[in-house]
Amino acid sequence: MVIEGDPESNEHLAATLRGVLFLVVAGLALGVLHNSIGRASRPPRGLPWVKHADEATSLEALQRAEVKTVPTNGVVTLDSATTPTPRIAKPAPVAATPWKAAAPSPPAPAPVTPSTSPPTVAPASALPVIPDVDRPIKLELASLKKLYDAGAVLMVDAREAGEYAEGHVAGATSLPYNDALTEPGRIERLGEAGRPIAVYCSGGTCELSMDLAKLMIEHGRRKVLVYEGGYPEWQAAGYPVASGTQAGGR
Amino acid sequence: MNSPARFLSSPWLIKPCRVAVGIVFIAAALAKIGDPAAFATQVHHFRLAPLASENAIALLLPWIELLTGLALVLGVRARSGAWLAAGMMVVFTLAVVSAMARHLDFECGCFGTADATRVGLRKLLENLVIAAVSSIASLRAR
């Protein structure tokens, strides 16, 4: 405590503040040294100093950059193996269910509470094929809408339950990121039935969708899409929405 | 000096407070230093710091905590360590309050991955107790 005019106290305070500064600077120096040594070691340890937003694969970029068209029927598809590197060019079966025809997935666990109506069949040639990779794949509204209209995607809302109840993509399942962290079993019970999962939140700077997508992948899910436009963009486009705690029909 | 002030500035109270807070800070720091990636994830869960700064926080903060704890336990620049501890506890408590206000529910990460306590009332009370003890530890012994 400073006592005005008490040189001894003021000197004590100054010494204490110098000590605080010393501890902070020494701590920072040790932290820098420790991580620098770790990153220089083989194999490298430590973390990059600056964390960048995840450069998730973009479905549209993959298609633009690496997809080849097939002259015979114009079908555009991507390699569905574990690498996103495309190879293309096989005609997709017309009558098959798109998500099976495009990229077969291992059977999903039996859903406890299927949240969407059975998907309808759409022409496979119209649908983007989702690479079976172990990282989130971003996609844009147009691609998502194609999958949505075909019933070839499970929409998952990563926002809080209250926001979901106020309004959500019609047919979307609510799985708030925080709930998934607390209860990972809910990821197992999504009931996507082999379809890709598209996760969204509030758009803009909302990170919940990407965080939830990563969590899903940590729990063994593949073909996890992140729709960064989120609910605001979907709603603004005039696409089907619902309110309340139920998923609602498409 | 009245008796409460005399009691609070007693070396018999301040020194044990410093050692106790020091041990808490050392334990918390070592757990975080051992797994910076996990701590960076826990920093991210608070959604308070810019994304780009999360790794730097996870890499540097535990070392400041460690030196703070050592200063308190060893009695070297102990009062400075106590001030720093009290300051950090204020920041940590505000972070917990902020997370609670936004209805976030995740593991605090206050002791790295060694502590599964979730952000909530219990964690808030823990922080308040440590902050109070740190405040006593920051007093000048008479």
Structure commentary:
The complex is a heterodimer of chains A (250) and B (142). With 250 residues, chain A is α/β, with parallel strands linked by helices. Chain A folds into two domains: 1-51; 57-242, 3-Layer(aba) Sandwich (Oxidized Rhodanese, domain 1). Chain A is built from nine helices and eight strands. In chain A, the strands form two sheets. A six-stranded parallel beta sheet of chain A has the order 1-2-7-6-3-5. A two-stranded antiparallel sheet of chain A has the order 4-8. In chain A, strand 6, helix 8 and strand 7 form a beta-alpha-beta unit. The N and C termini of chain A lie far apart (67 Å). Mean pLDDT of chain A is 76; it is low at 67-122. Chain B is mostly helical and 142 residues long. Chain B has one domain. The longest helix of chain B is centred in the first third of the chain and has 24 residues, at 11-34. The termini of chain B are close together. Classes of the chains: A alpha/beta (250), B mainly alpha (142).
List the helices and strands and how they pair.
The complex is a heterodimer of chains A (250) and B (142).
Chain A: H1 7-40, E1 57-58, H2 59-66, H3 98-102, E2 137-139, H4 141-149, E3 154-157, H5 161-166, E4 168-169, E5 173-174, H6 177-182, H7 185-188, E6 197-200, H8 208-218, E7 224-227, H9 230-236, E8 241-242
Parallel strand pairs in A: 1-2, 2-7, 3-5, 3-6, 6-7
Antiparallel strand pairs in A: 4-8
Chain B: H1 3-8, H2 11-34, H3 36-46, H4 54-74, H5 78-101, E1 110-113, H6 121-137
List its traits.
heterodimer, A: 250 residues, alpha/beta, Oxidized Rhodanese, domain 1, 2 domains, two-stranded antiparallel sheet, 9% strand, elongated, B: 142 residues, mainly alpha, 6 helices
